[in-house]
Write a structure and sequence with these properties.
CATH topology of the largest domain: Serine Threonine Protein Phosphatase 5, Tetratricopeptide repeat
Shape: elongated
Strand content: 5-15%
Number of domains: 2
Strand order of the largest sheet: 1-4-8-7-2
Low-confidence stretches: 201-212
Largest sheet: 5 strands, mixed
Helix content: 55-70%
Radius of gyration: 29 Å
Order of helices and strands: HHHHHEHEEHEEEEEHHHHHHHHHHH
Number of strands: 8
Mean pLDDT: 84
């Protein structure tokens, strides 16, 4: 598709198919062909289809750069590299903000640099600043033996030996040491320092992504499925389609169905989300014990779908399963108790003392957990206090009812919620 009608590219593709070997990944990346252009464009645009199609080449390149990087760690203590390029002024301003806020930057494509400053300058020599663009020279300080994405000198295997190239893998983290405009050469000089990977949120490519064990594959899929790479359900389907070519269904299906459940839940397709969560649960129960956190989280997700569908009996069943082993995250634990309380009340059988007791217990638990974590917010706390006040009033426990009404009153006064304030005052007056 990308080469149709382009005779030169078609010939390059045929040569690549016939002659490519894993040991030649660097050679092919530095060769003036379609490979580096399409690959870097796909990485910048986060094009899942192309990235997955290039999986074998990325793997070969990664493994080779990692080996060379190990040699660097053994032989050298540090090196300085350079990169010259034209940049949008808006991007330069963002780098300034990064510097001022002491943040870290990470580039999601392969980064070519040079050991020779003059080589880097050559690429921007003659370019004059324009309205939207300005020349930039990056000076990057790299020290050995820090845990980072691999980089390596590749001149000995490159098509352009004289460029003294050093190649960085995508997701490498940098700190901005300084950014200054050199008026004499009309360039911004941006000094960067190579960072430990822990100094920045994980990038798209993790160092263990090419290992074949099931846990690593599952982690890779989950990271990608919940990242900005996968915004819509078709993106998720595309990711799954390509990954099952590389790894077994068993490693991926559990998290694929779970991710589909989550995407559909976000789109308010609650019945569809429920179906996918149940498929994920069935597969998970075949390989994990009932006490495993993954299973308790699926119980929670299934309960949430039932709750949104107003099937409160089923929601209660799965919420209770989810909290049995106390493995839920704190946000999910709070919401479980909150929605359990409302589910018992929504069964519309206030004459059932057990339902009232259960509702009071779980709503109070939600308040207790929130008092230590402050996650619910005033609006939710107001609703809980009103619900608890209503239950106590129904049971003729007027002192407890007034206590919760007064707490609700304080929230309304603090937030100046006039309508709610008047309603609660009327409720208090009715039972005093």
């Amino acid at each position: 598709f990308y080469f149709k009608g382009n005779t030169n590219s078609e010939q390059q593709l045929e040569e690549f198919i016939q002659t490519y070997e894993s040991s030649k990944a660097v050679f092919w990346y530095t060769k003036d062909t379609f490979i580096y252009r399409i690959l870097n464009q796909a990485l910048r645009e986060r094009n899942i289809q192309i990235i997955c199609a290039y999986h074998f080449f990325i793997r070969d390149l990664y493994e080779h750069i990692a080996k060379l990087h190990q040699l660097f760690n053994e032989r050298d203590s540090s090196l300085n590299v350079y990169r010259g390029q034209m940049m949008k002024k808006l991007e330069i301003e963002r780098i300034k903000e990064t510097y001022n806020l002491d943040l870290r930057i990470s580039i999601n494509s392969l980064i070519s640099t040079s050991l020779d400053r003059d080589v880097a300058l050559f690429y921007i020599t003659g370019f004059k600043p324009k309205d939207d663009y300005h020349g930039v020279l990056f000076e990057i300080e790299c020290k050995s033996n820090i845990k980072c994405h691999p980089f390596a000198k590749i001149s000995s295997e490159s098509n352009f030996v004289e460029e003294y190239e050093v190649l960085f893998m995508p997701g490498t983290a940098f700190a901005v040491n300084s950014i200054e405009l050199d008026q004499t050469i009309e360039l911004y000089i941006i000094k960067l320092r190579l960072c430990n990977d822990q100094e920045i949120q994980k990038g798209f490519y993790k160092m263990d992504m090419f290992n074949g064990d099931c846990e690593t594959v599952r982690k890779l899929f989950k990271d990608m499925a919940t990242s900005t790479l996968v915004r819509e359900i078709p993106d998720l389907d595309q990711l799954y389609y390509h990954m099952i070519k590389l790894f077994s269904h068993e490693c991926i299906d559990i998290d694929y169905f779970k991710a589909l459940g989550s995407k559909n839940f976000d789109k308010k397709n609650f019945q569809t989300s429920l179906d996918y969560y149940k498929r994920s649960l069935a597969l998970t129960q075949n390989v994990l014990s009932s006490e495993h956190r993954d299973i308790t989280e699926l119980y929670y997700s299934i309960a949430e779908s039932y709750y949104q569908l107003k099937d409160y009996n089923s929601a209660i069943d799965f919420y209770l399963k989810g909290i049995t082993f106390n493995l839920l995250s704190t946000p999910h634990s709070i919401l479980t108790h909150l929605h359990l309380g409302y589910s018992y009340l929504s069964r519309q059988d206030w004459n059932n003392q057990n339902d009232r007791l259960s509702a009071k217990y779980h709503l109070q638990m939600a308040l207790d957990i929130d008092s230590r974590n402050e996650m619910l917010g005033d609006s939710n706390i107001l609703d809980i206090c009103k619900a608890l006040a209503n239950i106590h009033e129904y049971e003729n426990d007027f002192d407890s009812a007034i206590s919760f009404y007064f707490r609700a009153l304080e929230i309304c006064q603090k937030n100046e919620w006039i309508d709610e304030l008047d309603e609660i005052k009327e409720s208090i007056e009715a039972i005093q």
